[in-house]
Amino acid sequence: MKIETSQQIFDVIETICDLVLVNLLWIIFCIPVITIGPATAAMHYVVRKIVVGDGYKVFKSFMHSFSQNLKQGIPVGLLTVGLTFLCFVDFYVAIHLTGWMSIACWAIGLLTALIALDLWVVAFALLARYQMAFSQLMKDTFLLAMAHPLIIVANIGLLAILPVLCLIFNPFITYVIPVALVTIGAIPGYVTERMLRRPLAKLEQSGKDDDNLQS
Questions:
Q1: What is the mean pLDDT of the chain?
Q2: Distance of alpha carbon 119 from alpha carbon 69, whole angstroms
Q3: Residue ranges per domain, the chain?
Q4: 99-144: per-residue pLDDT in tens?
Q5: Residue 110 parent element (H or E)
Q6: 11, 92 in Cβ contact below 8 A?
Q7: In this structure, what DSSP letter does residue 183 have?
Q8: Can you say whether residue 207 is alpha, beta or left, with left for phi > 0 and alpha for psi between -120 and 50 degrees?
Q9: Which pairs count as long-range contacts for 49-55, CB under 8 Å and 24+ apart, including other chains?
Q10: What tens digit of pLDDT does each residue of 135-190 get?
Q11: Rounded to whole angstroms, what are the CA distances from 96 to 89, 90, 91, 93, 106?
Q12: What is the spatial distance between Cα 92 and Cα 119, in angstroms, rounded to a whole number?
């Protein structure tokens, strides 16, 4: 019993260390901005292997997926970043307007934020798994997000945790922020991969995307 408990503790520590490492790699490879797409796909690729317990080496697996998704990941990443920036602009403008113009900007901002969140949460998880055309990736992203809205809700909740923690632990904010930085990508990725595991496994078992699976 003690041996099993010790092994479980070791597995948890190993998982946490791997998530921190892949998150640091993700941050580093996102610095050029243009590589945010392939870097995020690579992060999901490694996190998926962590979730399923597949054999992997964090750095080697990350670089493998990064190079494999470089060409397609760049436009998807730029689109996602552009939509994210646009939604913040809409919110900023809405705050400084009144009446119907403000309401319209809030509506556009919320719609843009929802589309951007779908891309951040689902598109890169699919990109890490399958080789597909851009149009098919967009279609499958929104269909999967609509079919499993709890995945989006869970990620919104995770995004809301950081400001809440900063408010609660304001005297310790210098400790909260570094912890957030080393987990901000991998933890939502881990939650997403666990929630996507079953629906995507059913899809793969049906044979629909067998030919498009990435190695």
A1: 85
A2: 15
A3: 2-212
A4: 899 999 999 999 999 999 999 999 999 999 888 889 999 999 999 9
A5: helix 99-118
A6: no
A7: T
A8: left
A9: 50/15, 50/18, 50/19, 50/22, 50/190, 50/193, 51/190, 51/193, 51/194, 51/197, 52/197
A10: 999 999 999 999 999 999 998 888 777 667 666 666 655 666 666 666 788 888 99
A11: 11, 10, 9, 5, 11
A12: 22
Task: Read off the amino acid at residue 101.
Answer: M
**Which tokens sit at 37?**
């797409």
The pTM of this model reads 0.86
Tokens representing 92?
């900023």
User: Rounded CA gap, 59 and 18, in Å?
Assistant: 10
Please tell me the distance from the alpha carbon of residue 45 to that of residue 164, in angstroms, as a whole number: 29
Task: Yes or no: say if 200 and 129 are a contact pair by the CB < 8 Å rule.
Answer: yes
DSSP state of 122: I
Write b or e for each residue in 125-148: b if 16 or more Cβ atoms lie within 10 A of its Cβ, otherwise e.
bbbbbbbbeeeebbebbbebbeeb
In the prediction, which pLDDT does 174 show? Answer: 61
Q: Six-digit token pair at 67?
A: 């190079």
**17-28 confidence digits (pLDDT tens):** 899 899 999 999
Neighbours of 71 (CB within 10 A): 10
Separation between Cα atoms, residue 209 and residue 211, nearest integer Å: 5
Which structure tokens are listed for 127?
């990109």
The residue behind tokens 């400084």 is: 96
Residues in the chain: 215
